[in-house]
Description:
The protein is mostly helical.
Amino acid sequence: MRRLPPELPDDPTTEQVEAWLELAELVGDPAFLARVREMTLAGSQQQGPPPFEAGPIVEQVGPAVSAVWQPDSAEGRALVGAADP
Length: 85
């Protein structure tokens, strides 16, 4: 989330506007914020290494998200293939 754009593009799609509205409603919901706080605190108390490191995934997939590549596009398939072990 830290690497996603913090604002809508100049010409957002209907889906992007709806997603921003939904996000605005969520962050204004005290119950949602309380649950996020609980999950954050529980995660910070976890012993041992995290189940996976998200940084490399975000670095590799971030540009695809920004470019709005579809998973079934040639670019999307190439990216998924590059991630295979």
